[in-house]
Model the fold of this input.
Amino acid sequence: MGDCLTVKGSDLKLESGIGLITARPPQGTVRNYFNYFTEIEEEFVRRRGSHLLVSPLDWSLIETWKQRGIPLRVALRGITQSFDSYDKNVRRGRKVNSLFYCQQAVEEAFQQYREAHTGANPEGGAEVEKRAADQAPAASPLAPDSLRYALHEQREAMSRLSLESVDDWVLAEAFNRAARRLSEIIQDLNPSVGSMEQLDADLGLIEAFLLEALRQHAGETELARLRQQGDQELKPYRKGMEPEIYDQTLNNWMARKLREQYRVPRLSLFYL
Done:
């Protein structure tokens, strides 16, 4: 494959990632349909006052917030309240170096949000509002050519991983299944606003069975090692987290580490 591929007049440049090829959308393509992660990251960096991007551990926390259905605006509200309190503390000392500093305020903001919506919108309006806030496009759906190309690249990555795992039936079959499912998605692709949520759900199902295959292949010993490492990294923040939120964040961190080890790309629309 060359350095550049032209699709209907738009240049799609290729970049090398951890052994895989990923697409860079054509110039002028709208922002990613799912902007939950980037909005939170940008607000954290802006309020912190220096260019320190969130860590992989912080991203695991953001993923936990999203999985729990915390709307983007509520998460941002909690971050704002955290830094407002921090700025008022004249004896604050050290800088905020982790998004975990905002965890308690985000939880409080989410609790207030749920209490405010209890009994409201009986026809499901609150749930629709929450989904719209979490997954609203910046302006329009992803450019069809860019989305199709990105999915094609992910399918090719799965095919390559299947061939590389030919001596391990569990991994080879999982990657082959993922490639077949992605082929079906590409064939039926209809990148409209209304179909984006369902498309991301389909990609999420593929990610789920891939992650299960990675866990099975890694084995109990490796999973125990990863859990111990994750516990050590999360230890400074555990006291201020509810047990179920801590477990979910730890599981997200472990999943991220497994994907890195096996060079498996994310399939969610956010990562395309």
About this structure: The chain has a mean pLDDT of 78. The first strand starts at residue 4 and ends at 7. The longest helix spans residues 193-238.
